[in-house]
Design goal:
It comes from Lentzea cavernae. By secondary structure, the chain is mainly beta. Helices cover 0% and strands 56% of the residues.
């Protein structure tokens, strides 16, 4: 199921269900994802979409205008774009969750001397503890890019058991023209045909 996300408070939800007999013991029988807000220069209203996986272990986000650029033809503010998702995850009592892995993909056209950076930051509402990962790409490069944020078991940050805490995911693309300021360099995390998406994998545990 695919849902368009607006840049204000939303009532969209993605629901995962499966017969109890088929549910793994360490995965809840049902999971509901509500996208509360989405804000940022990389995801203007109507340019992001959420898709729910049927196995209740992951969800994906697809963007259509997530592009950062620097150098010739770019505006001063184009070098950095970001998007922050605020997500409410509902599930049966006795479970809690964290984000075990995030897979990012896009396209980069970086000139010799230019660099591009993708950053992901994950934290629960009201908690100071969070996780952040950064990946840097160096020109010359004109190809698809991929980056994975993978947490070790001991590094996964879980929502407090028995409490409702929204999950915040803040992503960023940044391009530095470097010595190639007379040419255009850009980096995207978007897709016009929904074939390129960001995938977030849950880590579930019993309380």
């Amino acid at each position: 199921m695919l849902k368009t996300v607006a840049a204000a408070a939303l009532a969209l939800s993605a629901v995962f269900t499966a017969p109890a007999a088929n549910a793994a013991s360490d995965v809840p029988d049902f999971v509901t994802i509500d996208v509360v807000t989405v804000n940022g220069s990389g995801c203007p209203a109507g340019t992001a979409a959420v898709a729910a996986g049927d196995d209740r272990t992951a969800f994906t986000v697809t963007y259509s205008q997530y592009l950062a650029q620097a150098g010739q033809g770019s505006a001063p503010t184009d070098f950095r774009k970001n998007c922050q998702l605020n997500i409410r995850v509902s599930y049966p009592q006795g479970f809690t969750f964290g984000i075990a892995q995030a897979d990012y993909r896009g396209f980069a056209n970086l000139q010799q001397g230019a660099t591009g950076t993708e950053k992901g930051n994950y934290y629960f509402q009201g908690m100071s503890q969070g996780a952040s990962r950064t990946h840097t790409f160096t020109g010359p490069k004109s190809d698809n890019w991929q980056a994975t944020d993978r947490a070790q078991v001991a590094e996964i940050i879980y929502a407090p058991c028995g409490e409702v805490r929204h999950l915040n995911i803040n992503t960023e693309l940044r391009v530095n023209a470097g010595t190639a300021s007379k040419a255009n360099s850009f980096m995207t995390m978007d897709s016009t045909d929904s074939s390129v998406s960001t995938k977030y994998q849950f880590s579930w545990k019993r309380c």
